[in-house]
Inverse folding.
């Protein structure tokens, strides 16, 4: 991970660290690595989304472990320095600054033993479509609904999950949402 961190400019690395801290403080549902990766690539840096996601996971583990052990800034930096692969100087400076400014908030707000083990629902989009024809069938003309769910996994990575449903399936889907809403109103 240290080799890939060297590629990331300091301002983008700082933004990634800030987003991870905000996620650990439950202020945002997750880190949008796809959007951040695109911006980094636009700046001329060659990095792929899988590598950026690994870096985000490592940083999330680093910050949550430091919070669980209530490490001071100096203890965290000393621990980082004792690793087998050394982080670039700019990364250590960013981690020091972010932890010094916001690390205590994690230690206070997050009971590290209660880390969520499931993802978090962020957004849902849907669209209605009609299949007109295909290679094997000249005239289909059946409607369908495409649903895209945006979900943040436990590490904070935001991903989109898409699926299609027939109209009867979509009606059942809506009915189940209405049932959930009525149950939640009674709580």
């Amino acid at each position: 991970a240290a080799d890939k961190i060297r590629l990331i400019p300091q301002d983008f690395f700082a933004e990634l660290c800030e987003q991870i801290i905000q996620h650990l403080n439950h202020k945002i549902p997750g880190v949008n690595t796809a959007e951040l990766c695109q911006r980094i690539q636009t700046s001329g840096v060659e990095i792929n989304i899988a590598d950026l996601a690994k870096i985000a996971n490592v940083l999330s583990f680093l910050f949550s472990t430091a919070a669980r052990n209530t490490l001071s800034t100096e203890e965290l930096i000393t621990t980082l320095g004792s690793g087998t692969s050394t982080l670039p100087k700019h990364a250590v400076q960013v981690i020091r600054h972010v932890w010094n400014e916001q690390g205590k908030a994690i230690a206070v707000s997050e009971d590290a033993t209660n880390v969520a083990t499931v993802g978090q629902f962020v957004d849902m989009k849907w669209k209605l479509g009609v299949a007109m024809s295909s290679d094997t069938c000249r005239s289909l003309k059946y409607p369908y609904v495409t649903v895209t769910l945006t979900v943040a996994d436990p590490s904070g990575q935001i991903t989109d999950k898409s699926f299609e449903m027939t109209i009867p399936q979509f009606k059942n889907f809506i009915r189940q949402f209405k049932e959930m809403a009525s149950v939640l109103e009674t709580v």
Observations:
- Helices lie at 2-7, 10-24, 33-42, 49-68, 73-81, 89-109, 167-186.
- Residues 109-116 have pLDDT under 50 and may be disordered.
- Residues 118 and 154 are 6 Å apart (CA to CA).
